[in-house]
Specification:
about 375 residues, Rossmann fold, two-stranded antiparallel ribbon, binds guanosine-5'-diphosphate, magnesium, GTP-binding, cell cycle, GTP-bd, GTP binding
């Protein structure tokens, strides 16, 4: 901003004047003592003027750093007003880089990134921690590790599953969609084109080839069902959205599918961690409103940002999702390339799918998320 910069220049100039007049007059006083001449006196008023300018210059920097709300482009107001402001078109907010500078990270996101080695260079950091762990284990310094939970076991089974495609139909032909089968609860994956959806779906099941990967934006233009018999569930691969030429592909039928499909347990919305929420993401979530299943945000390509930057980017996404209904507040962070966060995502899928089949099955599991992690700003439309 030019304001503080100009004030800074004025401050620097003031400081120079103060030093010149203040120190200069001291020097003249000393010379006058030496030569027995007359001393004109220190120019106190000019010195004070200089100091006032200095204060004026540094004042903007002495100000408290902006609050988290300010960084999110919000004024500090009560929660209902905050929501209304948040619902404004994202264009009316400061740019992402400005918000990135101002955001104060959420402590749970900091812990999540650090504990799971998310971010650039994650493989090396994970290996170093593993070596340390093995060394301590070798020396018998570790207490006995707890048995893996049932959820962990099922997540590992999902990893080894071989999903196969059972149906692939164009979005606009609802008559061709398979009948909902209660034995196969569904989870759907959606995101802007090129967000890394195909790569993630492929990485989720190491042996399956759920979706094809392409460098070309928007090549997946069908709704595709992939079934895994091992867990008893279907992945629904939804087309990418957000490119002008594909705007109509992701039409009202697909929105209706998400809103009304009885089998759908969760909609995973993928967001590229480098760009955060874009207009297309806001539009799509606004369109869904409080209808349909719970939405879970997944931040993709987390290996591309340094951990500190990733923490800020994830915090911005968390701040942005407050504007939407029925969205889980906890974010999932993944990288299909570095293979981080995949186990957590598998656990999340299994928890929703198996939980849907037998609620009591996983009762008391440590990974069960508390109710207050869900934003439910107003419930159904
Ligand atoms: P889709 O259009 O959403 O299906 O995206 P793709 O899965 O085809 O991925 C688009 C591009 O992003 C490809 O060049 C991928 O190699 C790249 N990509 C996908 N996932 C990751 C990731 O986790 N890390 C990095 N660095 N690149 C990724």
């Amino acid at each position: 901003a030019p304001g503080p910069a100009l004030a800074g220049c004025a401050g620097a100039l003031g400081a120079a004047v103060a030093v010149d007049l203040g120190a200069g007059s001291s020097w003249r006083q000393w010379r006058a003592g030496q030569t027995g001449g007359r001393f004109a006196g220190m120019d106190t008023a000019a010195t004070l003027r200089g100091f006032a300018l200095v204060l004026f210059g540094v004042a903007p920097w002495l100000r408290e750093p902006g609050s988290t709300d300010e960084a999110r482009g919000l004024e500090r107001k009560d929660s209902s007003e905050t929501r209304t402001k948040n619902a404004l078109p994202p264009d009316s907010r400061p740019s992402m880089s400005v918000r990135m500078k101002r955001i104060r990270p959420y402590p749970d996101i900091v812990a999540q990134v650090e504990e799971n080695f998310h971010g650039r260079n994650s493989v090396n950091r994970r290996n170093r921690a593993l070596n340390k762990y093995n060394a301590m284990k070798g020396k018998g310094l570790l207490s006995k590790q707890p048995e893996p939970s049932k959820l962990d076991v099922l997540a590992d089974e999902l990893d080894l599953a071989r999903p196969r495609r059972i149906k692939q139909v164009p979005c606009g032909l609802p008559d061709l969609w398979p009948e909902p089968d209660p034995r196969y609860p569904e989870v759907a994956f959606a995101g802007r084109s090129n967000v890394g959806k195909s790569s993630l779906l492929n990485a989720l099941t190491e042996r399956g080839s759920v979706a094809r990967v392409s460098d070309e934006p928007g090549t997946t233009n069908m709704l595709a069902w992939h079934r895994t018999g091992k867990i008893g569930m279907d992945f629904v691969d939804m087309p990418g959205y957000g490119f002008a030429t594909r705007a109509r592909v992701f039409g009202p039928e697909t929105i209706e599918f998400v809103k009304t499909r009885p089998n759908l347990r969760c909609l995973y919305v993928l967001i590229d961690c480098r760009f955060g929420f874009k207009v297309a993401d806001h539009e799509w979530l606004d369109e869904l409103g409080g209808r349909g299943p719970i939405k879970q945000i997944i931040l993709t390509k987390c290996d591309l940002l340094r951990p500190k930057v990733l923490i800020k980017a994830a915090s911005l996404v968390r701040a942005d999702l407050e504007a939407h209904k029925r969205v889980e507040r906890k974010l999932l962070l993944v990288s299909s390339h570095a293979k981080t966060g995949l186990h957590e995502l598998r656990c999340d899928i299994v928890r929703r799918v198996v939980g849907a089949k037998s609620e009591s099955d996983l009762a008391g599991d440590a990974d069960e998320q508390p109710r207050d992690l869900v934003t439910d700003a107003g419930g159904a439309d």
